[in-house]
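Q: What would this chain look like folded?
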Amino acid sequence: MHGLMMDRQLLISALIDHAGKYHGDTEVVSVNTTGGETRTNYATIRERALKLASAFEKRGMKKSDRIATLAWNNHRHLELYYAISGQGLVCHTINPRLHPEQLIYIATHAEDRILFFDQTFLPIIEGVREKLPGIEAFVLMEPRNVELAERLPWLEFYEDFVDSGNDGHAWPDGLDERDASSLCYTSGTTGNPKGVLYSHRSTLIHAMMSISPDVMNFSARDCLLPVVPMFHVNAWGMAYAAPMVGAKLVLPGPGLDGKSLVNLYNREKVTMSAGVPTIWQGLIAHLEATGEKLPYLQRTVVGGSACPPAMIEKFRKDYDVEVLHAWGMTELSPLGTVNNLKNKHLALPEAEQLQMRLGQGRPPFGIELGVFDDDDNLLPNDGETQGNLYCRGFWVINQYFRGDGGDPLHDGWFPTGDVATLDEDGNMVIRDRSKDIIKSGGEWISTVDLENLAVSHPAIAQAAVIAARHPKWDERPLLIVVPKAGQSFSEDDMKAFYDGKVAKWWIPDTVVTVDALPLGATGKILKNVLREKFGDALMGN
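A: My prediction, written as structure tokens:
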């Protein structure tokens, strides 16, 4: 029909083209892996990404070939994001915190042809290289190092690789927005990780959603620092959203401790950040120890696991930082919900507003949520009836890479593995993971609620609750805690702390103190490890 709009492809290269043209002088600050910093801008990132794309073409890389990265958040990693996808290849980010055998499995399963890596991970590469015969080149993301080149003749260097490309290269014609652009694997706490393949179209729609005011509210007036790694679901989309709006971008490299982050926040005047709760615990500990403040930071997105209420309140009251509680998954690109209040909620008392902020928030346009019973019947959105959380939308997985694991969908919905409630506005509260929730005497107990209460205790740094087997009740809650330095408490003190806050039968039977909790590759507590160690601790009771 005549009179319709232009039909242009939604391609990732359009993001860096836009940023380079209209925000070319906006800074990208990069903390280098080997020390020091690089100050560049979007125009230079685009120029180098195009030259790098030319180098891929000269190496014989063909459409949809996978190019792997094993790297921190830095300017070279950002260049690779755009060079790889812009050239029609697939950017496969690998999590360096995985066990070497899982890394070998992932790179082999993906059929990666080239692997780029930061110097931190050279020992890992030396250990696995001979088990990755399909990889044609291992490229260290640094300038040429004569000593390393002599010791490791198989090693290539990033700046040499870029220089092998041609100036004046253009993005290839004929790419389709439904072509694959990037690949991430699930963390694989049980069984082999599964690949999630994103398209240009899904990535751009996700970025357009994420910048909107009711989600992350990015603009050209912001300075963004993604603490969440670029190897963790594409830094939650921030590596695409920042160039889309032309925001200043600060890439923190490997230094994610409280001192390093506070220094960057205050020196670069960072207005917005994002990361998992374990990162913020370290940051708050540094602030409390030094008395420093965060005069420029306005808001932070907390996701990856449930954000403790005490953390939300401390950020707001002590540092005037708004915490946006979010939820998502690798299979959701990853954003599913972000907790921003509606206008009608602003008239509520502060205590009621805080209570609302404890949930994971509402889905933006593009995501639909539903709670279902075990027979896949849709349950009401009444804020009380909990069920299995399913979702569908414009950036939700349809099938795992290479069809692994069979069809993940149930009648067009993706089962998330979470147990949740939804209210009439779509506000979602994760009650637990379906594999973690405790069924005691036929009644459900939320480990999330018990953990959030535990970390609000002044002596507790971290906490995890697991379902321990019980001879009478089938399962009972067992609390595992890491105390703050110099703090002590008794088991009776900890149990008394729960009194009046939860039903008596929810109170954990036993409290176990440990020096540290096992964390997975994305900073989540590995409850499967805790269940293996402490799962029978109550069987003598």
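The radius of gyration is 24 Å.
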